[in-house]
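Hi R.,

Here's the input for the coproporphyrinogen III complex you asked about:
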Amino acid sequence: MTILKNDTFIKALLRQPTPYTPVWIMRQAGRYLPEYNATRKRAGSFLGLAKNPGFATEVTLQPLERFPLDAAILFSDILTVPDAMGLGLYFAEGEGPKFERPLREEAAVNKLAVPDIGSTLRYVTDAVSQIRRALGGRVPLIGFSGSPYTLACYMIEGGGSADFRTIKTMLYERPDLLHRILDINAQSVIAYLNARIEAGAQAVMIFDTWGGSLPAAAYREFSLAYIQRIVAGLIKTCDGARVPNIVFTKGGGLWLEDIAATGCDAVGLDWTCDIGAARARVGGKVALQGNLDPMTLFAQPEAIRAQVAAVLASYGHGPGHVFNLGHGVSQFTNPDHVGALVEAVHEFSRPYHSGQAAH
Ligand code: CP3
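And here is the predicted structure with coproporphyrinogen III in place:
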């Protein structure tokens, strides 16, 4: 068992005291970093990068070399799971992810099965062990997956979508088919996240990027119910340490009480929520992660610092906050501005963790 040199992130997720507010950034290993683009070029493609544990380790560590981040996130993608189910993931230049064989026909849905994680996703668990060795306990490593509904969006639409017409048609016309897909996805995600935890992931996050596109009742039935099953099925302790989990539904601000009721340790917030108001609603039950608008990073450092200070002040005094953006960092972001954000979080957050209240 490696002793963590910096465990502020894990402690904050468990709502335990820390000397400052920990920070990491969604998509911290990505195209805004020139060194990422250089490694991606050597790997030949995004999938060449993600499927090679050596390259995945290299890019996972790149943002940590630049910034004093409090967590590392495994470099991979949520869509490796449907890829392992045989849907044929590929990236068309400038068009984002696509599937060669989208799931539309009843016969194909009936054939869908939980992939054998040990063989199909071996490259992911190998990357996790290699990254843990390379980190040497510097900061914890986050493993992640998509939510069953978010994965189904890509599996059924065959790629990104502006209106989710195909999956929503299935939802209203053949809910039985969609439930079958979601059931297989949930079982796969549980097996996948637990394999990552056993390989060394010290916290896990479920990305429900598209749950927020649903009406409230459909969100509960088609997205949250399956997230709840995953939370219940996750390994909670590994090597004597708690492995906390985070649930992030983009656009889920109206449903925070329901999300907190899944039994998760922390709820991710997008930038539309007031984090102080969110804390008043669910802060007694869960930690909160977020929630600076990623576009803040296009402003000059002084403006970024002011916005960081405002999020910290809104959350207020005491533990249970992990600082992050409200969604992934844009590829057009100036890396120095990410540096300004990380520095400001560390600098401004200490008074909120000292004995006396900061306001
Ligand atoms: O640093 C990290 O956060 C870890 C790695 C990570 C990636 N994708 C790398 C990636 C994580 C956690 C993800 C999650 C992911 N992937 C989500 C959920 C989070 C979210 O952003 O809402 C989703 C919906 C995907 C699917 C996906 N993968 C899309 C839509 C794209 C294209 C995005 C774009 O900006 O063009 C990807 C590709 C992808 N995944 C990239 C990275 C760094 C860019 C690919 C490249 O290098 O060309």
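One thing worth noting: The chain has a mean pLDDT of 96.

Cheers,
M.
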